[in-house]
Design goal:
Helix content of chain A: 40-55%
Number of helices of chain A: 23
Shape of chain A: globular
Shape of chain B: globular
Distance between the termini of chain B: 30 Å
Largest interface: A-B, 25 and 23 residues
Number of strands of chain B: 4
Strand content of chain B: 15-25%
Oligomer: heterodimer
Largest sheet of chain A: 8 strands, mixed
Largest sheet of chain B: 4 strands, antiparallel
Distance between the termini of chain A: 39 Å
Strand content of chain A: 5-15%
Number of helices of chain B: 3
Order of helices and strands of chain B: EHEEHEH
């Protein structure tokens, strides 16, 4: 194909990329109806498919181990174990004995195991179900003689184009070789989008049905992750333009990184704390490279979704300690367990909920299961000894809840004291402001805790009454919604009246359109995805308190999202 | 037939890499090997050479399991598996 063609999707991760297409193919595998020749033959076919699949998997695993990616190599080791699994073989042979062909027998057995795991209603086993199905697809592909193409064939830096990408697929992706991601499916919160933003590479998702037919292996594609535009077979002009943009972005990032480690001070010299939102040890380490001055949000869910039982105290202490040590004496805000019915761990009995996001989750769940929360609090306190740690409660919606949570902190402390265990005695306690009720009760809540961190993602959803993952109404989700901005202002004012500092860990904190407004409103701390820190600091350094306050005041008189957008676009023209 | 009880102290329990090591080691022996999770009232017995069946036992850190070996080299097999667990999977 030689004609230049343009397509548009959702810009999920900003940045320009230009490079050859790598088509990630998840082939259509249909289980045939054809009657088997003989039981023996079907068994042999299955075993031979296993041998071939195993050879492929061994190769991938070896490559990953040589690239010292032990964690991802482990996934493939598990897959090899499943291919060899005697229980799987027995299941397949039994089905074959009943007269099914190898493909049917395989599908039945795989589904049986996968469903068994899924029935355990546990994130850990949900992942195992995915593993079994993954292996099942690979074996089916071998039986059908369809090439199963994973990322192990990715040899040169390319733009990955796929129908959709899930975690088990991207597990084998080498970030060094991926220039950008592009999928037919997906939205801003899909796995592809989140992965791209975490890796700091451009992505365009939700392009639709036209994407795959348009994409030819190795042909050139120019992609704009901010605008969501794609140009297949760009003309020389388009190529040059894209390359120029890409270079400019790269240079810009290098420039920003030079000063990323320095503090962000407004033009008058007022120091603004800029921190990172992280979800595990690796992202904590990564955050420092982007100039994070602390962790404004440490999500702890990763610890609670890994296994079939809750993590014990010793395990938690070890992990928190590792993260705190990575951050040295920089402040770390640990958010207590924030999970719910949408992603249940198997060891908690979840009710069937119509609205898991308005339901039994986060602090509500924890107050009902105090042992779980007290163990977590004890662990955080113990690991905090010698470090600068703060505890934060999610989804607080009333003063009563805050008091109940604080009581548990006291309970945790007295337990540690009576056991003679060392712990951080000056750990401050704060809350996330993410429910409208908390924002409206700012004054009362500020009187009873040490700090606030505004969780704008959920605050926006609850305030505007919109589910951002619901395609039909997602466009109503506006992080710069006038109502949300008023609630934020109210929150900051109430907190400051009580001498309580206010930070923000929602997405809004990293948005350049919002930073001047938030600064002007008096936000004390900005916490965001690490890769956004350099740009945020750069902008903060260029702003004066006066300009920021004027912007905030002006924006708060505007009644519509579009007026606010227009205002901020104009405002930002003066800054690079 | 030989049998022994042992506590799995690895922080991940008998999942992920430790499970893989366990299954791979068990598969090297010709005898039959079964595992029961005593901490979960061990009614179910799983073939130690099957990752899928082993995982469904839900052996977490601190759980006690019973390993039973039957057949050729049963003593050797049992000792090897117990050693693997007691050495915390070589970590």
């Amino acid at each position: 194909m030689t004609t230049e063609i343009a397509l548009k999707g959702i810009g999920a991760s900003a940045g320009t990329a230009i490079g050859p297409i790598f088509l990630f193919k998840s082939p259509e595998l249909t289980v045939p109806d054809k009657p088997p020749e003989s039981v023996e033959q079907e068994k042999t076919r299955f075993l031979e498919a296993c041998e071939r699949a195993k050879a492929d998997l061994e190769q991938i695993r070896e490559k990953l181990e040589n690239a010292t990616d032990a964690e991802t190599a482990d996934i493939f080791r598990a897959h090899i174990n499943i291919v060899d699994d005697p229980a799987l073989r027995e299941g397949v042979f039994a089905e074959v004995g009943e007269g099914r062909n190898a493909e049917q027998a395989l599908s039945q057995s795989v589904e049986q195991f996968a469903r068994q795991f899924e029935a355990m209603d546990d994130e850990y086993f949900a992942a195992r179900a995915a593993d079994v199905r993954d292996v099942g697809r690979r074996l089916l592909g071998q039986l059908l003689g369809v090439t199963f193409r994973g990322f192990d064939e990715l040899a040169e830096a390319s733009i990955v184009v796929a129908h959709d990408l899930g975690p088990s697929e991207t597990a084998s992706l080498d970030p060094e070789l991926v220039l950008a991601l592009c999928t037919s499916e997906g939205g801003l919160t899909s796995h592809t989008a989140i992965l791209a933003r975490t890796l700091g590479i451009p992505a365009v998702v939700g392009v639709g049905e036209q994407l795959l037919p348009m994409a030819a292996e190795h042909e050139l594609l120019a992609l704009d992750g901010a605008e969501g535009t794609l140009i297949f077979n760009p003309s020389a002009e388009a190529r040059d333009a894209a390359e120029a943009r890409r270079k400019a972005e790269e240079t810009r990032m290098q420039e920003l990184l030079v000063h990323a480690d320095e503090p962000a001070q407004t033009a008058e010299g007022r120091r603004i704390e800029v921190a990172a939102n992280v979800g595990d040890v690796t992202s904590a380490q990564n955050a420092l490279e982007f100039g994070a001055e602390g962790i404004g949000l440490l999500r702890t869910e990763f610890l609670f979704l890994q296994d079939t039982t809750p993590p014990d105290e010793e395990k938690q202490v070890a992990i928190y300690r590792e993260i705190f040590q990575t951050m040295e004496d920089r402040p770390v805000i640990v958010r207590t367990l924030d999970i719910g019915g949408d992603k249940p761990p198997g060891y908690i009995d979840f009710p069937d909920e119509m609205n898991p996001f308005l339901g039994w989750r986060a602090i509500r769940l924890c107050l009902d299961q105090p042992d779980l929360l007290v163990t977590q609090l004890r662990s955080i306190l113990r690991a905090a000894a010698g470090h600068n740690v703060r505890i934060m409660f999610p989804m607080i919606s009333s003063v009563e809840e805050l008091r109940a949570a604080k009581d548990l902190v006291e309970e945790a402390k007295s337990g540690l004291v009576s056991e003679g265990l060392e712990y951080g005695s000056d750990v401050s306690v704060g809350i996330m402001i993410e429910t409208p009720s908390a924002a409206l009760l700012g004054r009362e809540l500020a009187a009873e805790c040490d700090f606030f961190s505004i969780g704008t993602n959920d605050l926006t959803q609850y305030t505007v009454a919109v589910d951002r993952t619901n395609q039909r109404v997602a466009q109503l989700y506006n992080p710069l919604h006038p109502a949300v901005l008023r609630l934020i202002k109210q929150t900051i004012d109430a907190a400051h009246e009580a001498n309580t500092w206010v930070g923000m860990c929602g997405e809004l904190a990293g948005m350049k359109e919002a930073i001047p407004i938030l600064l002007g409103m008096g936000l004390d701390e900005f916490s965001m995805t690490a890769s956004l820190i350099p740009a945020a600091k750069s902008l903060l350094r260029q702003l004066t308190d006066q300009e920021a306050q004027a912007a905030a005041e002006a924006v708060l008189t505007l009644a519509t999202g579009s007026e606010i957008e227009t205002f901020m676009t104009e405002f930002l023209e003066a800054y690079e | 037939m030989e049998s022994k009880n042992v506590v799995v102290t690895h922080k991940v329990g008998l999942h992920a890499r430790p499970a893989a090591q366990f299954v791979e080691l068990a598969s090297q022996f010709p005898c039959e090997i079964q595992v029961r999770n005593l901490t979960r009232e061990g009614k179910k017995s799983a073939n130690a050479k099957s990752m899928l069946l082993l995982l469904s036992l839900g052996v977490s850190s601190g759980h006690e399991i019973e390993i039973t070996t039957t057949g050729e080299g049963e003593g050797e097999a049992l000792q090897a598996l117990v050693d693997l667990i007691e050495s915390n999977f070589g970590e």
